[in-house]
Specification:
mainly beta, three-stranded antiparallel sheet, 6 strands, 43% strand
């Protein structure tokens, strides 16, 4: 192809691109969604004064996460429920979280 013809084609492509009529090539994106085998577990904990908590850890992930528990106050008859959050930890580490005194752990979960 001659230089003149290349310049003409290049100018036409630039004009079309400027008008939004030429699609840019696809850019490599993140890996396609996959089912991951993230496995989270928790151990029950009892503090020195009887307060309850959980030690939560996950395997099969390379992401940071934090443990959370929903606690229920039972010693004052209010049955009030509230959430406490453990520290954010890296893969393989444990996030430990506690309820207040006089409360029980209703359930636990993780936040990624």
């Amino acid at each position: 192809m001659s230089i003149r013809k290349r310049l003409t084609v290049s100018a036409a492509v630039l004009a079309l691109a400027g008008a939004g009529l030429v699609a840019a090539p696809e850019v490599a994106s993140a890996a396609p969604a996959q089912i991951s085998a993230i496995d989270c577990k928790a151990n029950n904990l009892t503090g020195s004064l009887g307060h309850k908590g959980k030690e939560i850890w996950c395997t099969g992930t390379s992401s940071y996460y934090r443990g959370a528990i929903v606690c229920k106050k039972v010693d004052d008859g209010s049955n009030r429920e509230y959430t406490h959050y453990g520290p954010t930890v890296g893969p393989g580490a444990k996030s430990t979280v506690w309820c207040d005194y006089g409360a029980i752990v209703r359930f636990w979960y993780t936040i990624s």
